[in-house]
């Protein structure tokens, strides 16, 4: 198949510093190439992909996509950005839009649209799909991460890893570390948005000291080593996460996760088995003290069993074929979501 993946063109793909949507797109791109498919990716300039990169500044994305579909007979187009509805081309390819963010972030028009030339939609967790107030069910394909090779070793520090912004709540994790007198490493990108930079300066930086440090953005082997060496990962998000790649990656590294009971996090962390699900910062601090009873081997085994990226890639390929077959058979008929 010739597959065109369309990213949110305000973030680079493939550098490990953007968000979950960009990471999933990157994993799918590599998986398509490894399986012999032709992968094309529309993404911000400077992105790194396994297939063919079609660079598109966000301001020019619609025109770039239009030129691409005019030049290449794509079999399938897969959208990953929050703003995908602005860039749907009029062409013969079957289409899918993955909803990586909470359903409430998307305009209602994307759920109301019908017709053979509108993308099918899918969710990435059961809790996200259950929150969709729409007249048709949305298929769920849970996210996955490459199982990789990790040398699990507990060096005694706590870790918080993610995009540093108010809704992710790293200041809460830092408060937990202070309360416990524990070493902690905070890692992740501060994107060039005024509210994110102000949050870092006002709420994160004042909580850093000799024992609670900021490592900046991390990726690749550095990221794997950081997760594998932690006593546990804290996920202190204040919004309903549709998934959590960092929790999956930590578990793959054999590292327990302590996370708030919000969104899809209880679908990822098995309370009492691979970590703990908590409701408050006080409970998070108490749970950290109990992570020593979580076998690191169990975290790794469950992650490989449940979150292997190969399963996710094959699920998307199956859905591509299903949507494409239906489109070829009902080219002019109104299209319900599969």
Short structural description:
The protein has 338 residues and is α/β, with parallel strands linked by helices. The protein has helices spanning 20-34, 61-71, 109-112, 126-130, 170-180, 194-204, 220-228, 245-252, 265-268, 281-288, 296-307, 309-329; strands at residues 2-6, 38-43, 52-55, 76-79, 94-99, 120-123, 157-161, 184-187, 212-216, 230-235, 257-260, 275-278. It folds into 2 domains: 2-144 and 309-329, Glycogen Phosphorylase B (Rossmann fold), CATH 3.40.50; 157-307, Rossmann fold (3-Layer(aba) Sandwich), CATH 3.40.50.2000.
Question: What report would you give on this structure?
Answer:
With 338 residues, this protein is of the alpha/beta class. The chain folds into two domains: 2-144 and 309-329, Rossmann fold (3-Layer(aba) Sandwich), CATH 3.40.50.2000; 157-307, Rossmann fold (3-Layer(aba) Sandwich). The chain contains twelve helices and twelve strands. The protein has helices spanning 20-34, 61-71, 109-112, 126-130, 170-180, 194-204, 220-228, 245-252, 265-268, 281-288, 296-307, 309-329, and strands spanning 2-6, 38-43, 52-55, 76-79, 94-99, 120-123, 157-161, 184-187, 212-216, 230-235, 257-260, 275-278. A six-stranded parallel sheet has the order 3-2-1-4-5-6, sandwiched between helices. The chain has a six-stranded parallel sheet with strand order 9-8-7-10-11-12, sandwiched between helices. Helix 5 links the parallel strand 7 and strand 8. Helix 5 (170-180) crosses helix 10. It is globular.
């Amino acid at each position: 198949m010739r597959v065109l993946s369309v990213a949110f063109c305000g973030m680079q793909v493939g550098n490990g510093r953007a968000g979950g949507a960009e990471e999933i797109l990157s994993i799918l791109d590599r998986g398509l190439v490894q399986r012999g498919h032709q992968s094309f990716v529309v993404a911000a300039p400077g992105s790194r992909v396994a297939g063919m990169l079609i660079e598109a500044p966000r301001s020019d994305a619609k025109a770039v996509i239009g030129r691409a579909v005019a030049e290449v007979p794509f079999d399938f187009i897969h959208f990953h950005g929050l703003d995908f509805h602005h860039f749907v081309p009029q062409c013969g390819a079957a289409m899918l839009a993955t909803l990586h963010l909470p359903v409430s972030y998307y305009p209602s028009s994307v759920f109301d649209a019908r017709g053979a030339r509108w993308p099918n939609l899918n969710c990435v967790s059961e809790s996200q799909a259950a929150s969709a107030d729409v007249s048709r069910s949305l298929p769920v394909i849970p996210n996955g991460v490459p199982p990789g090779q990790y040398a699990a070793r507990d060096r005694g520090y706590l870790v918080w890893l993610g995009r540093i912004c108010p809704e992710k709540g790293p200041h809460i994790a830092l408060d937990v570390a202070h309360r416990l007198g524990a070493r902690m490493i905070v890692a992740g990108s501060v994107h060039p948005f005024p509210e994110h930079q102000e949050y870092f300066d006002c709420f994160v930086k004042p909580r850093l000291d000799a024992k609670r440090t900021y490592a900046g953005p991390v990726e690749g082997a550095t990221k794997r080593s950081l997760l594998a060496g932690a006593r546990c990962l804290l996920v202190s998000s204040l919004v309903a996460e549709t998934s959590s790649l960092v929790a999956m990656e930590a578990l793959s590294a054999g590292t327990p996760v302590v996370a708030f009971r919000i969104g899809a996090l209880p679908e990822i962390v098995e309370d009492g088995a691979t970590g703990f699900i908590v409701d408050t910062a006080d409970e998070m601090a108490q749970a950290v003290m109990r992570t020593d009873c979580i076998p690191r081997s169990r975290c790794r085994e469950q992650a490989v069993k449940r979150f292997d990226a190969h399963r996710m890639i094959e699920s998307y390929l199956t859905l591509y074929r299903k949507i494409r077959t239906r489109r070829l058979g009902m080219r002019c008929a109104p299209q319900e979501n599969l």
